[in-house]
Design goal:
Layout (H helix, E strand, L loop, with lengths): L6 E4 L5 H15 L9 H15 L1 E6 L4 E8 L2 E7 L8 H12 L4 E6 L3 H9 L3 E6 L10 E6 L4
Antiparallel strand pairs: 1-2, 2-3, 3-4, 5-7, 6-7
Length: 153
């Protein structure tokens, strides 16, 4: 199945568990040196009580499986995670196009400094680094970087 066969749609409450599972698998694979600040049950609860009902949450759906997620909060891109098997297949690019369509005036995001692959991905999509932090403001206590995307005028 190709990325083009995957449907991007707004998440419903029934997607929370599957989206959390994608987040957990992706975090463990992409960030092996970063301590996950919350256990599996807490992540599932956070998706069910906070992310899906309160934010603009999108999932990538193969028809039988959720394989990615995008979470927007105003101009902030809060989450973009793909199932590890779906990395490098164009799905992240489709999510970025969706985010830019939804927020045409610009986007901001935080990513961990150690996450070189994510930083390259966002840079490829026009994001520029505007701030670095020591990580004391995030749950993982991991140094991070804030990036901003402004549309071309």
């Amino acid at each position: 199945m190709s990325s083009n066969d995957v449907v991007l749609r707004r998440a419903s409450d029934s997607d929370a568990r599957a989206a959390a599972d994608v987040w957990l698998r992706s975090f463990a694979t992409a960030l092996p040196t970063v301590r996950c600040a919350h256990d599996e049950a807490e992540v599932h609860d956070w998706f069910a009580r906070v992310l899906v009902p309160r934010y603009e949450t999108w999932v990538a759906d193969t028809g039988s499986t959720v394989v990615g997620l995008l979470v927007l909060d105003g101009k902030e891109l809060k989450q973009l995670y793909l199932d590890p098997a779906w990395r490098g297949r164009g799905l992240g690019d489709r999510f970025m196009s969706l985010a830019e369509q939804r927020k045409p005036d610009g986007l901001t995001l935080w990513t961990f400094q150690v996450n070189a692959a994510a930083r390259r991905f966002y840079e490829r999509h026009g994001f520029v680094e505007v701030e670095r932090s020591d990580g004391l403001r995030n749950d993982e206590r991991e140094p991070d970087v804030r990036c901003v995307w402004q549309p071309q005028t």
